[in-house]
């Protein structure tokens, strides 16, 4: 019996799997969580094994739901992001749908003790707005039109300043049209003179003010051999 145990230790079973490290197990568990989240199931639940296809509307819902929150999972959306979605996607037109209407609908569809809405409540809210935005159409057609406004859209990132060409700005920055003391601060090419254009500096060259041939004598003397300027 002892000899059989020794032989078994020397020749392990071929089909036995090697021990996995803790990091490999963690990565596998994280991948499993992402997979079950996308399939609409949870760990230990009896969810469908077939992956659920995410529609373009739900994909946009998730993009706006996680906007500005790195911890968000994309399953629920707060009121701020809901308002941003309606604004960025053109649901708010300022006539039939206003920001106030959007806030009222959000409070109507969400749970009383909750500050967020689920994807199902999100579609209910869109149905409420669709009936006001497209009054001439049926409820189904109106909802479809609102969905088209949102499908495939992502949050608009604000804070980017764009340069705007304005005739007024161009006129105010054209140095050739400056007059008075402002004109003296720039040369013929439009380049600033610096301190010389702001402060009146005394002329110590020895020439009379306005003399056009200043410095010509020094040039003539330097051009003749054997002579030094005085």
TrEMBL record:
Task: Region Disordered: list its residue ranges.
Answer: 1-52, 209-230
Protein name in the entry: Tubulin polymerization-promoting protein
Write out the annotated subcellular location: Cytoplasm
Q: Name one GO molecular function term.
A: tubulin binding
Q: Which GO terms describe its cellular component?
A: cytoplasm; microtubule
Pfam families reported in the protein's UniProt record: p25-alpha
What family, per the record? Answer: Belongs to the TPPP family.
**Keywords, in A-Z order:** Cytoplasm
**Which residue stretches does the UniProt record annotate as biased composition, category Basic and acidic residues?**
21-31
GO process annotations (BP): microtubule bundle formation; microtubule polymerization; positive regulation of protein polymerization
């Amino acid at each position: 019996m002892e000899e059989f145990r020794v032989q078994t230790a020397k020749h392990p079973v071929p089909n036995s799997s090697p021990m996995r490290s803790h990091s490999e197990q963690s990565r596998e568990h994280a991948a499993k969580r992402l997979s079950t989240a996308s399939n609409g199931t949870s760990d230990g639940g009896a969810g469908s094994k077939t992956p659920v296809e995410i529609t373009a509307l739900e994909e946009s819902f998730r993009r706006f739901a996680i906007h500005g929150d790195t911890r968000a999972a994309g399953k629920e959306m707060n009121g701020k992001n809901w308002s941003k979605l309606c604004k960025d996607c053109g649901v708010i037109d300022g006539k039939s749908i206003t920001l106030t209407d959007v806030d009222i609908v959000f409070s109507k569809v969400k749970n009383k003790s909750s500050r967020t809405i689920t994807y199902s409540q999100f579609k209910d809210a869109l149905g409420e707005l669709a009936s006001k935005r497209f009054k001439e159409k049926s409820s189904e057609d109106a909802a479809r039109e609102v969905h088209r406004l949102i499908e495939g859209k992502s949050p608009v990132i604000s804070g980017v300043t764009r340069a705007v060409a304005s005739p007024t700005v161009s006129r105010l920055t054209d140095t050739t049209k400056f007059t008075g003391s402002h004109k003296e601060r720039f040369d013929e090419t439009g380049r600033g003179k610096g301190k010389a254009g702001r402060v009146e500096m005394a002329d110590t060259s020895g020439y009379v003010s306005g003399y056009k041939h200043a410095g010509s004598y020094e040039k003539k003397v330097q051009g003749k051999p054997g002579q030094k300027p005085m």
